[in-house]
Amino acid sequence: MPRATTKVAPEPARSRFRVQAASPSSRYQPASNRPPPSTKINFPPSTRPRIQHPRNALEAALLKLPPSVIIPDTYFPTDAEIDEESLALGYTRDQLVEGRKAFHERWDTMFANAGRNTVDMLGFKPQPGEEVQLVAIPGTRYSVRFWDGGLYNQGQCCLDFFDPTAKQAVNSPRGWKLYPAPRPGVFPLNDSHSALVSWEESWGIQTENIPAGEERFSIFQGSWCALARPGEEPFWFAVPLRHPPNFPQPTTLRM
Fold this sequence. Notes:
Layout: E1 17-18, H1 57-62, H2 79-88, H3 96-114, E2 120-121, E3 133-136, E4 143-147, E5 156-163, E6 168-170, E7 177-181, H4 199-202, E8 217-220, E9 224-228, E10 235-238
Antiparallel strand pairs: 1-2, 3-4, 4-5, 5-6, 5-8, 7-9, 9-10
């Protein structure tokens, strides 16, 4: 089996967006730590209608997302839920109004300090018209598909398995595993033989419960990767590497 590096833990598949700031409380933090591997999680869709009038900068940013984006209810906490959090943080019951005000002001301050009024969406499947790159998998009708997924600034990209003829993403066929490895000359982050773990699996969703075509992975740009399949030799391919647009690139000169 090829030597590989384990991937950096992705942003949570639960929300698929993050805020470039620390959360005012751990309960409502979009970029939370992933749960233990043994945890089984079922993420139901939002059951509340979206609020019409945002109470803080986070809610204002979330309301700019397309209506098709499912936002968990916890990102629009009710006053009662904020009160519960305030009590856990040490507020008394006669300070709950003050606690709600402080909660919203912390979000406003963080967005102001970040100089932005939007959130980054990570890991969404490619939208119509979005640029993707494909590597055909020999002997199959599938390709490995790469797209930005909002991970460019982290030096990563998203990938999945894709049927170009049907123009549909598919989940990993049974027994297929992806093993990343640094290209020669690049120091590995660690030394292991671990396969990539999908975003869904990293959040405790059982493989058989991942909706068809919704599985996704992330990997470092410019790395190499081997696809292991039962009864087949490993299929090695290169992961695309995007250069900063403002950095001059070498030109070729024949001597």
